[in-house]
Amino acid sequence: MSHFQLALLLGMTVALGPLALDAYLPAFPSIAEALGIAHNQVGLTLSAYVATLGLAQLVGGPLSDRYGRRPVLLGGLAVFAAAAAMVAQAETLSGMVGWRIVQGIGGAFCAVSVPAIVRDQVGGQEAARLFGLIGLIMFIAPAAAPSLGALILTLGDWHGIFLLLAGYAVVVALALQGALFPRLRPRPKARTPVSTLVTNYLLVLRHTTTMRFVGIQVLCFSTMLLFITHSSFIYQEWFGLSEGRFALLFAANIALMATLNLINRPLLRHFPSVILLRAQVLLQFLALVALVIVVAMDGPLWLVATCIIAAIGCQGGIIPNNMANALEFFPHLGGTAAAMLGAAQFTLSGAISALSSVYGGHALLPIVVTMLACSAGAVLLALGAPRAVARETAAQAA
């Protein structure tokens, strides 16, 4: 199948994550009122989903290596859809958090399967280009998600958002079953015992270059997740914007992400993805430095929003380049390597996001300072990354 067809179907699958994170952001005030809780406590439902999305990948990755991508991915979609329907029925914060955890398990099995499928089919610069194309297609989801959520709120209430997520997961499952799996190049299943699975994870953990890229992924994603978690507070409470204006500003982040993703694709023909990654991490850091200065000086909304959009937009180039480099060393353990990357990314970022909820509902400066701290760590790791990533035969042999 063509790269575009593969990217379209995998992009639809990856879009589950942004939809589950972003679609209900405009509904935070409504959910808080319905459940009788503080606005910042609703963020716990997001943090619980993200943390589970990471931890469950440690199980889903090896399962996909051993039993194949199809059963793990389709099973994940089924769990995701059922849990989304149950979230819509939740009447307490604990109930909502519990079903979001279950939803995170289903989402994890989907999330870990997509990069593994890409690594099954291509590698190197070609993988970076394919990841970029997948990212470009799935950017539609986070761009439209808050607006879609705001539209549903005008027609009904927040429950409808999660029912829509359940329906979307069913549609994706039907599309993958009919159009993707029958056309994928077959790969041998890894018939390995539990002891070997542990050994495989140790191979990834001991690979210092791979773990450097994992660290970059965690820290850069944390900057974005911190914004996502507190975006409703920043725009709707701190600056008093309506649901519609909030959705528009949120979509601006995705528009820049898509633009930088488009620019990144032709650049890959002339520069190694590691060099592009380093440049984009630095640009994100500079945008966050400017953001902290503006917030500390009590700057206006348009200036704060400009700095946020610039910082979050850099993810459009960071994500595809970093994922391709992180998975390059383990072509025969794509699911396991992707699980390690996803688990670290979502679990650690989710923990940082959850901790930020302690102060996230009271002031803006601590939020942006935390974003800057994460970005500074990513810069240090990126500056020490090798100028060109080459495969290691020892890792391949594993």
Structure characterization notes:
The structure is a single chain. By secondary structure, this protein is mainly alpha-helical. The chain has one domain (3-397): MFS general substrate transporter like domains (Growth Hormone, Chain: A). It is 81% helix and 0% strand. The chain contains 19 helices and no strands. The protein has helices spanning 3-14, 16-22, 28-35, 43-55, 57-67, 69-87, 93-121, 124-138, 140-155, 159-180, 194-206, 208-238, 243-267, 273-296, 301-313, 315-327, 334-360, 365-383, 393-397. The chain starts with a helix and ends with a helix. Mean pLDDT is 84; it is low at 390-398.
Give a concise summary:
This protein has helices spanning 3-14, 16-22, 28-35, 43-55, 57-67, 69-87, 93-121, 124-138, 140-155, 159-180, 194-206, 208-238, 243-267, 273-296, 301-313, 315-327, 334-360, 365-383, 393-397.
Key features of this structure:
single chain, 398 residues, mainly alpha, Growth Hormone, Chain: A, 0% strand, globular, disordered C terminus
